Amino acid sequence: MDTRKLAYFVQIVDSGSITKAAAALHVAQPALSQQVSALENELKQRLLIRSKQGVQPTAAGHTLYRHAQMILRQVEQARQDVAASGAAPAGRVSIAIAPYSMASSLTPQIISEVGRRYPDIVLHITEIYGGVLSEAIKNGRLDMALIYEPGPIRGVQFTTMIVEDLHLIVNARRSIGPEVEGGGVSLEEAARHGLFLPEQNHTLRQLVESGLQSKGLQLRLVGEIESVPSLTRLLRADLGATVLPKSAADALFHEEDFRVLRIVDPELQCKIALCTPDHEPLSEAASAVLLVLKEMLHEMLSSKYARRRGAAAS
Questions:
Q1: Any residues with CB less than 8 A from the CB of 46 and at least 6 apart, and which?
Q2: What is the spatial distance between Cα 47 and Cα 37, in angstroms, rounded to a whole number?
Q3: Helix (H, G, I), strand (E, B) or coil at 220
Q4: How far apart are CA 247 and CA 21, in angstroms?
Q5: Can you name the residues that pair with 146 across neighbouring β-strands?
Q6: Which of 8, 155, 16, 23 is nearest to 72 (CA)?
Q7: Tell me, what's the pLDDT at 13?
Q8: Nearest 5°: CA angle at 33, between 31 and 35?
Q9: CA atoms within 13 A on the CB side of 222
Q10: Which of 145, 271, 134 shows the shortest CA–CA distance to 204?
Q11: How far apart are CA 215 and CA 198, in angstroms?
């Protein structure tokens, strides 16, 4: 099986048509069909279903498509690494950053520090949700992610960087029941407020729902919001509340219009983790970026703990 056949197959699936794929590849349509037939004979599986509307991959075709993407990416990365051997790391590195987390506030620092150290690396940064994360990293569409840790997922590994308590964020004008010692609020009180949360495949939503269930409480869901600007406007209009870790609340809701109260009885905690593939090594450029991320997070945590010690001493 050669990589050219795999590249042709991926283009056909992406195009949804052999005719369109032939035009994109500048290859005669009969020759392209022969390449598919050769793959099917080699693998002894039917890979495509042909119809008047185009082509669709079979179950075997979906499997080959996933592996072909990974193989083609590795081949291209090998070419780049060999060409750049001995030179400074270069190339494109893709990072996913969890929405609703302090990690999203690090984007300017990440861009600045990577640009200073490795000017030939181009960063592609996106916000992404847990439901598509594992497939994106396993298939090589993402190099790494800084996200809420969802628990074990086959094909990826998590390195826990931060463990944080969850907090209730409300409009400063909203009436809140009795606060507990240290300015916290009980989970029962938090449940009394209608909440804006991300959709169910988001780890943050799952943590909140699990905590409520442990206390026999019902979730009062006002809406599923996955846009930070929209969430800010909704809370400023006092249409509901939300739940976030303290660092995210401080980064996103630092104005006097909002109150941030630690949830207790029980305490709810989340983990922010670095996620990388466990089946293949990172490229030289991605490894360099991963090191920068770890250094930045370590410095941030060291500074945070130093401020806490200083506050306790005073």
A1: 40, 58, 60, 61
A2: 9
A3: coil
A4: 47
A5: 97, 274
A6: 8
A7: 92
A8: 70
A9: 16
A10: 271
A11: 21
CB 174 within 8 A of CB 237: no
Give residue 190's pLDDT. Answer: 92
**Which residues, given as ranges, of the chain have pLDDT below 50?**
none
Question: In angstroms, what is the C-alpha Rg of the chain?
Answer: 24
CA 285 distance to own-chain centroid = 19
- Long-range CB pairs of 134-142 (<8 Å, 24+ gap) are 136/96, 137/275, 137/276, 137/277, 138/66, 138/70, 138/277, 138/279, 139/66, 139/69, 139/70, 140/69, 140/70, 140/73, 140/74, 140/277, 140/280, 141/69, 141/94, 142/94, 142/95, 142/96
- Residue 155's Cβ-side half-sphere holds a number of Cα atoms within 13 Å equal to 13
* Tokens of residue 158, six digits: 């998590």
How would you class 87 by CB atoms within 10 Å of its CB: exposed for 0-12, middle for 13-18, buried for 19 or more?
exposed
- The pLDDT, as a whole number, for residue 128 is 63
Closest among 3, 46, 8, 53 to 29, alpha carbons compared: 8
- Residue recorded with tokens 């490894």: 287
Nearest to 50 by CA among 12, 23, 4, 22: 12
